[in-house]
């Protein structure tokens, strides 16, 4: 579904992504793990069109993405849940979900999809009229995920969904990510909590200083001694 070929991305003179190649197959959860500053978020932002590669290609269902605007990439079927959630704080929960469907014109279907989001995240249904900025961190993460689902993505990009959440909420969010995948959405997950990421992913890539250092099934990487020492606390 998604193929990155020798991607190179710069921030000014800083070479942030160096010849990165990987793929995500339809129906998979693929995770990118690595330490802070390894280039994980940069990779997602480049796929979304927020950043432009200086060299290399990004193909989504065999179409070149790196020439498209971020909104055109959403229209192609890719939606991102950004790091830090970036919900619209002064709008209600319901209005945030409507914003997720801003490119759609099928009003009746949009309402149906909001109902589906409320089934996945009952907490949001209870707070549908509440200003999003007054929600807890976990609720804001649920809202950011629900908003991304409103564009009916084929591929969902998740950037650090567990950041700043209590352990019990992290488990809940990861269970929901698995559920979303099981209903047919392909997922590319960037996550610092490597234990949780590898527990739900099918395959994984380790990014180190802008390069792919290791790749394999999630099970293989979870059992790898070097991965355990560097990212799994032992």
UniProtKB/TrEMBL annotation:
Belongs to the ABC transporter superfamily. It holds the Pfam family ABC_tran. Keywords: Amino-acid transport, ATP-binding, Nucleotide-binding, Transport. SMART domains: AAA (SM00382). Residues 2-234 form the ABC transporter domain. CDD domains: ABC_TM1139_LivF_branched. The keyword ATP-binding applies. It comes from the Bacteria. GO terms for molecular function: ATP binding; ATP hydrolysis activity; branched-chain amino acid transmembrane transporter activity. The lineage of its organism: Bacteria, Bacillati, Bacillota, Clostridia, Eubacteriales. The keyword ATP-binding applies. This is ABC transporter ATP-binding protein. GO terms for biological process: L-amino acid transport.
């Amino acid at each position: 579904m998604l193929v990155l070929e020798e991607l190179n991305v710069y921030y000014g003179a800083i070479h942030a992504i160096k010849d990165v190649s990987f793929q995500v197959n339809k129906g998979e959860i693929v995770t990118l793990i690595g330490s802070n500053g390894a280039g994980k978020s940069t990779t997602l932002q480049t796929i979304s069109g927020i950043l432009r590669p200086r060299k290399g290609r990004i193909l989504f269902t065999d179409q070149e993405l790196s020439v498209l605007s971020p909104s055109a990439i959403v229209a192609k079927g890719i939606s991102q849940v950004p790091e830090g959630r970036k919900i619209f704080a002064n709008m209600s929960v319901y209005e945030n979900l409507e914003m997720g469907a801003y490119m759609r014109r099928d009003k009746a279907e949009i309402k149906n999809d909001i109902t589906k989001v409320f089934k996945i995240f009952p907490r949001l249904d209870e707070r549908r009229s509440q200003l999003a900025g007054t929600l807890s961190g976990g609720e804001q993460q649920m809202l950011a995920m629900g908003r991304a689902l409103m564009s009916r993505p084929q591929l969902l990009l998740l950037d650090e969904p567990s950041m700043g959440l209590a352990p019990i909420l992290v488990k809940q969010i990861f269970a929901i990510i698995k559920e979303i995948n099981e209903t047919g959405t392909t997922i590319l997950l960037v996550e610092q909590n490597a234990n949780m990421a590898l527990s739900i992913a099918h395959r994984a890539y380790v990014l180190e200083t802008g390069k792919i250092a290791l790749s394999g099934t999630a099970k293989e990487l979870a059992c790898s001694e070097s991965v355990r020492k560097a990212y799994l606390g032992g």
